[in-house]
Amino acid sequence: MATHLMFISAPGLRLGDLRDPAVTPNLRELVDRGWGRPIRSTFPCVTSPVQASMWTGTGPGEHGVIANGFFHRERNEAAFWVGHNDVIAGEQIWTRLHRAGKTSAVWHAQNIKGAAADFIVTPAPVHEADGTTRLWCYSKPEGLYAQLLAEFGHFPLQHYWGPLAGIQSSEWITKAAAWLQKRHAPNLSFVYLPHLDYAAQKFGPDSPQASAALAEFDRVVGQLVSELHSTVNGDVAWVVASEYVMTRVDGAVFANRLLREAGLLAVHTDADGKERIDLAGCKAFALVDHQLAHVFLRGVDPWRAAEVFRGVCGVDRVLVGGERRELDLEHPRSGDIVLISTSNSWFAYYWWLDDAAAPGFARTVDIHAKPGYDPVELFIDPATRNIPIDAALVRGSHGVPATSPRLEGALICAGAPGVEPADLYRDTDMPNLICGILGCA
């Protein structure tokens, strides 16, 4: 049993990434001090649902986080990266720890604002009336981020996502997590480090750039381990858990264009000739998220609408109605149809048929305006400071069901004597693993 646990959530980490000690010496050292095993994500294998599964021990059909975004049918509104914890149904690990008299901290996780954890820090930039953005983070207790600001400066949001995404954001998170651990000694620290996502999506998971990012990630983890190796707070156990595994992709599926060509998706044209999706007037609309899409229908037979996607290159599965139960996605928030791409494809949100008619936000980093996840935001033309509308640029994605060993991630546990490893873990096993390490029911 350990007194403190640092749980690092590491999207994109694979067991194979740990084979070369020259690239990942610090992760290898953790494995040598404990064990490493495969971990399999619940579908959809994207950040928000997987983190909710890690915290609740249930799948999306129960906790309700069916993607990184939602479509609110009652008000015809799509919303991505909503940030608030009340979207997650069921008891979370923070409450379970409280019953055992233990405390917790969460760093930069999704849908965490307002959670029962004792300490929380996550990005919350302030969008001013003049269109500018002011750096800030939501924190609990109030005033925590102001203390971190005095110690480390602002969280470098520009390096957290988009064209400038880099190791700087993970460095800030780990320094801040170590600072809090030394001063407040939470029993559990859940630390989200998304660094492996960036190069893998931009260049492919097996690219030289992805390998370089792995070495950077390993260095940052090593610095955190070294800093907390001997503290007044006692021994620290470590878990490094992959959220999902990336696959190389060579093309995108444009679900909304297919619906438009079938006469099911409506658009309206602004005065400047730019087309916006008319969510209130659509008979069908696809909320896309990496390698899955939720298709929402109004007054259309779902089996008829499903025919739009059957046989389309890049679409692997089309789940209608009760078929969604097979992958634990029969939930009121889910689309009437769930699409899953092939592992070498992904879903792009584009609905316009001519790039000249694309809305202005299509060429900008604007994660809230787009009714779908857009990895093309990682690319930018330095001359124009615009993002190209070219889904073919993307070389890595994730989200398809982890039904084979090649889609399983890595789980590392160290400094937790008495915790026996299983052959294979699932993200829904994480609450029990955490409580097993910390000695709580």
Question: Can you walk me through this structure?
Answer:
The chain is an alpha/beta fold and 441 residues long. The chain folds into two domains: 4-246 and 403-438, Alkaline Phosphatase, subunit A; 252-397, Gyrase A, domain 2 (2-Layer Sandwich), CATH 3.30.1360. 24% of the residues lie in helices and 22% in strands. It contains eleven helices and 23 strands. The protein has helices spanning 25-33, 47-56, 60-63, 93-99, 144-152, 167-184, 195-203, 208-227, 255-261, 302-306, 430-438; strands at residues 4-9, 34-40, 69-72, 77-80, 104-107, 119-123, 126-127, 133-134, 137-140, 188-192, 236-241, 247-248, 252-254, 267-269, 275-277, 284-289, 292-297, 315-320, 337-341, 346-348, 396-397, 409-414, 425-426. The strands form seven sheets. A nine-stranded mixed beta sheet has the order 9-6-5-10-1-11-22-2-23, with helices on both faces. Strand 16 (284-289) and strand 17 (292-297) form a beta hairpin. The longest helix is centred in the middle third of the chain and has 20 residues, at 208-227. The protein is globular and about 65 Å long. The model has no long low-confidence stretch (mean pLDDT 95).
Write the layout of secondary structure elements.
Elements: E1 4-9, H1 25-33, E2 34-40, H2 47-56, H3 60-63, E3 69-72, E4 77-80, H4 93-99, E5 104-107, E6 119-123, E7 126-127, E8 133-134, E9 137-140, H5 144-152, H6 167-184, E10 188-192, H7 195-203, H8 208-227, E11 236-241, E12 247-248, E13 252-254, H9 255-261, E14 267-269, E15 275-277, E16 284-289, E17 292-297, H10 302-306, E18 315-320, E19 337-341, E20 346-348, E21 396-397, E22 409-414, E23 425-426, H11 430-438
Parallel strand pairs: 1-10, 1-11, 2-23, 5-6, 5-10, 13-20
Antiparallel strand pairs: 2-22, 3-4, 6-9, 7-8, 11-22, 12-21, 14-15, 16-17, 17-19, 18-19
Helix pairs in contact: 6-8, 7-8
